[in-house]
Amino acid sequence: MTTLITIVFTALLSALVTWGAAWLVFTRFIWPQLEKDLNREIDVKVQQIGDALEARVREGVRKGVLDGIAQIPTAEVLRGTTENMMKTGQSLVEQGIGSILGNKKR
Length: 106
Description:
By secondary structure, this protein is an all-alpha fold. The chain is built from 2 helices and no strands. It has helices spanning about 1-70, 75-100. The longest helix is centred in the middle third of the chain and has 69 residues, at about 1-70.
């Protein structure tokens, strides 16, 4: 009976020492290297995503600017709008100056 207990105890102790050594090697050597590799891989993927996103944003802005330029009104419409703005501004200035100088012209 004593021999059987010694064999079982030796087997359990051997298993514990093996697991402890494996855990020590994993935590000291393997895990830090895996973590470095994973961080490096994440950095590469983030850079790739950033480059792709930058290209998509650049293309979207380019397309938006081109669409905006294409929707600018023709020269005649632009000229008419400018003339209307000038007349409105002129009447506002005249009224402002008139009220400052005391002219009650409406």
